[in-house]
Amino acid sequence: MEQNRQETKKKINIWLPLLISTVLVGGMYIGTKLQSIGHQNYASTDNSLVVNSEPGRIEEMIRYIEARYVDKVDSEKMVEQAINTLLKDLDPHSNYISAKQLSQYNEKLEGNFEGVGIEFIVLDDTVLVINPIEGGPSESVGILQGDKIITIEESIVAGLDSAVDKVVDRLRGEKGSEVRIGIKRGSETDLRQFTIKRDKIPINSLEVGMMIDEKTGFIKLSRFSATTYREFMEHVEEMVNKHEMKDLIIDVRQNPGGYLLEATNILSQLFKEKDKLLVYTKGRNVDRNEHQSTGRPFFKVENVAVLIDEGSASASEILAGAVQDLDRGVIIGRRSFGKGLVQEQYDLKDGSALRLTVARYYTPSGRSIQKNYGDQAKYDSDVMDRYNSGELYVEDSIKVVDTTAYFTEKGRKVYGGGGITPDIFIPMDSILLNDDYLLLRQFIPQFVYRYYEKNKS
Fold first, then answer.
1. Helix-then-strand count for the chain, H and E
2. What is the C-alpha separation between 341 and 356, in angstroms, rounded?
3. Which helix (H) or strand (E) holds 313?
4. 3-class DSSP state for residue 104?
5. What pLDDT shows up at residue 61?
6. In this structure, is the dihedral angle defined by the CA atoms of residues 31, 33, 36 and 39, taken in order, positive or negative?
7. Which residue(s) pair with 182 in the sheet?
8. How far apart are alpha carbons 132 and 181 in whole angstroms?
9. Which helix (H) or strand (E) holds 437?
10. In CA terms, which of 8, 19, 82, 123 is 20 to 30 Å from 139?
11. The predicted structure's pLDDT at residue 369
12. What is the model's pLDDT at position 47?
């Protein structure tokens, strides 16, 4: 009897790891099917998830190392290194994001964060308020521009070479929670104490919305967040109703992209025709998904210009590519970054996430503008290579990476494979890469606020 029990136990010990691995893989498969993919709204496919390697080996090795290695190891760090090793041979935009990093990324994309609503710099080891955000909790309790934050709760933060990240961590917190700060105002000797109730603070993706002449509006977008389309429409409405705007310039220079739907919603406002193809996405396990105009623009916009440069990527290139391919306006600037890949986010249970490239996007003419990423080092140095080749200064130096010709709606020839090439070239201002300028520009904010303190009138 005892012998039978031992044999049964031995068989269980043999099969248990395989059973657990099978359950884990099954759970991962179900998870990928149920996982929300956020704002991209891709249609799911019937393709089965294929596991080509034996499951559980990485976890098994880490557990063994943790249990038996001669020195203490950081298992969490080992897991992250293993994940990054898995991803390094994929494209440059498939990446693992830690829980802390994800929170920071999501704030920019969702268009808000929870905190006290203060913009500040550290000047001479002192936290100086640049601006209390309009309508935020700091403004409501009376914090003013130029105030110096000396204490947060009971801790002194002035004169301690305060790191910006540490100050941010102390000021941010859950909506409804409170933080007490001590403020030195002007030449006052006593600190003013303020208790601030944290709230949701908007992060605007639209930096500038203004008229530049009697009929032309100008909009500068820094990213495509969840609030970009709403911000865009509010400013266009104001410029049309108050200033009778006719033409529009959209500036997406140095805009790294964001949510695809925010870009296509803006594009749809530029076309009075319904069902015009604006962009489509397609991947190995993602069916073709088309985004088309609604034919319901709220305002009449006549002439359109889009400003791009080597920092315009992803959703910015979707906007520029559609305007160019459909001959809706003129593209002005320098060749864009060349990111034509679409990621979906898979949230992990510890709060971190995997952003995996699942599709490519294509402009209305059918071109992919993704530049080659076979050589990672070359991919990373692409912008500097453009500078060294003279492309940022001379139009004739623009490199046509893919010679396959595509055609706009009116028959103009355009190319893909390495960004959007502008219709009108504007060289880079050479001072932006001047060594003296790069050295001195870091001191400009400090100089401005020192001058402001002494010359408020």
1. 13, 21
2. 10
3. none
4. helix
5. 84
6. positive
7. 151, 193
8. 14
9. helix 435-440
10. 123
11. 92
12. 34
- The low-confidence residues of the chain, meaning pLDDT below 50, are 2, 8-53
CA distances (Å), origin 452, targets 198, 205, 275: 29, 27, 53
Phi, psi of 13 (to 5 degrees): -60, -35
Q: Is 58 helix (H, G, I), strand (E, B) or coil?
A: helix
Q: How many whole angstroms separate alpha carbon 237 and alpha carbon 241?
A: 6
Active-site entry in 220, 339, 365, 371: 339
Q: Three-state DSSP class for 170?
A: helix
Q: Is residue 95 classed as helix, strand or coil in its secondary structure?
A: strand
Please tell me which residue in 138, 205, 225, 314 is annotated as part of the active site: 314
Q: Is residue 313 classed exposed, middle or buried when 0-12, 13-18 and 19+ CB atoms within 10 A define those classes? A: buried
Over residues 300-315, the pLDDT tens digits come to 999 999 999 999 999 9
Instruction: Provide the pLDDT for residue 220.
Output: 97
Tell me, what amino acid is at 238?
Answer: E
The token pair at 406 is 């595509």
- pLDDT of 3 reads 52
Residue pointed to by tokens 């998830």: 49
DSSP 270-303: T--SEEEEEEEEEETTEEEEEEEEES--SS----
Known catalytic membership, residue 314: yes
Between the alpha carbon of residue 408 and those of residues 168, 304, 321, the distances in Å are 48, 16, 10
Q: How far apart are CA 301 and CA 381, in angstroms?
A: 39
pLDDT of residue 233: 97
Which structure tokens are listed for 154?
Answer: 């009971």
Report the 10 Å Cβ neighbour count for 151.
16
Active site residue 138: no
Write 230-236 long-range contacts (CB < 8 A, 24+): 231/204, 231/205, 231/206, 232/206, 232/266, 232/269, 233/269, 233/298, 235/206, 235/209, 236/209, 236/269, 236/298, 236/299, 236/301
CA distance 126 to 133: 19
Q: Which two tokens stand for residue 420?
A: 């959007």
266 near 257, Cβ under 8 Å?
no
